[in-house]
Amino acid sequence: MLVIDSVSKTFHPGTVNEKKALDKISLTLADGDFATIVGSNGAGKSTLFNAITGSFYVDEGRIVLGGEDITYCKEHVRSRVIGHLFQDPLKGTAPHMTIEENMALAYLRASTRRHAYFSRISTKEKKKFREQLALLDMGLEDRMKQPVGLLSGGQRQALTLLMATIVTPRILLLDEHTAALDPATADKVLALTEKIIAERHITCLMVTHNMHQALSLGNRTLMMDGGRIVFHVSGEERKKLTIDDLLEQFKVCAGKRLDNDRILLIS
Amino acid sequence: MSSIITLSIVQSALELGCIYSLVALALFFSFSILNIADLSTDGCFTLGCAVGAMVTLSGHPYLALFAAVGAGVCSGFVTAFLQTRMGVPSILAGIIVNTGLYTVNIAVMGFSSNVNLFASDTIFSLAKKKLPYSWYADWYKLLLVLVIILVIGILLSLFLSTRLGLSIRATGDNEHMVRASGISPLFMITVGLCMANALTALSGALLGQYQKSCDINLGTGMVTIALASLIIGETLVGKGSMFRRIAGVILGSCLYRIIVALALRMNVPAEALKLVSAVIVAIAISFPYLKDKYSFYRLRKNNRNLFVKEGGTNVGH
Q1: Sign for the pseudo-dihedral over CA of B262, B267, B270, B273
Q2: From the CA of B161, how many Å to the nearest CA of chain A?
């Protein structure tokens, strides 16, 4: 369960570049919830994710994950229970290390014992990694000794997904993780994402610019603008919503901001 | 050739190559793996030599090596602390520590600029006493350093495949991914720099006992020399498994010493050696780039000739 309680963040405060990226945003995700987020560029979607992962500390508000207040928890500490995928497939893996070594690092999250640091990858773990890779159906299980830098973007993203979920995270954050892939690969990675989330009942937040995905995936849809959640739909109401309705809503939100700008300019 | 290269020249080049290869391994750790240019190497090398020399002087040549390693770890920790906890850029952190170490080193040597160990036992003189006289008696120094290098090389390559080793490698490769995997990159940088500087200081201590003296200017230019060895090794052996790369670094260091020995044989004055190393580093680093350029030039020329043969004309030719 994720609770975001009136969180705000302003970048470059007191300068001409001052930008209120998050504006008293509140959001509660129950266990097993899968919410999609839409919004124009600069709406604060990625900033929200970065606030959850701890790339920066928020100015005010609280973030509670699985009953633990993580608002001021260090990034690498909270990332033990958070899975995060980016649009850029290069971000999630170490290119000069082998597939096996990358997976071993991701699996390090599973051990809380300090002396695990001096252990090497066991045969049992190698077998486990192999089985997991075989599920991707990309032939990666036979390339475990190859450096990740040799894989294609789609393969790297699939591997990153596997690494992010190798130890079931309390929450999975997907930041347009299929946007940089070709349509066929994107579909494959998306199907894989859905499968893993459904099988393990993972709580998930996903940013997308694809209105179809926004309505068809998961059980909730959020729309962000100006660092707030401006529209929120779930359940029966969401099932009735069409892509056109969502686009209309999108225009309404964007229009409101335009009006505000106009008022500013006139006065 | 025999007039230029004699066995004893190769022998002493190999001895020095093995001793200095520890510094090259340290740079392999910090420069190649962690992707940090640690410029405190010069000072740390002298620190290892000075600490080692003082402990040897008090009659504990073995303890001297461990004391030097400890001093190296401390020096590495300060460099790492400056860049991970105080926000000092990594190159600047190295330079600051290097500058500070000059005074520390003078102080360690009892505020004198050199110390000699001619009256003391060293690990080399002890090894000589232990070895029975036979054909290999002349090779005891080389045997001893070879054993030390082998042990350290194997330990290092084993370490790099442990989870801690993997985490350190990943920190230099993709820091972002390391943080996302729940590992603190700051801690990994600290561990990595401590280990690298321990190797540098150990090398200094071995050299001090080898040449039975320590001088405050011993470490000047050490970064360049070690970098030359590292790059010669990586160019020759290429990138492969960690063990292979470590073996390449040691080989590169020995090769560098042989090149230097040859240069000296050809009456290059000793003062010119720094310039020779600088030239070697510049050539070794630019070699892969120039090779690429050259093969592109060849390709372009061939394709153009083909085009002209088929009746076309080239722009600008």
Answers
A1: negative
A2: 6
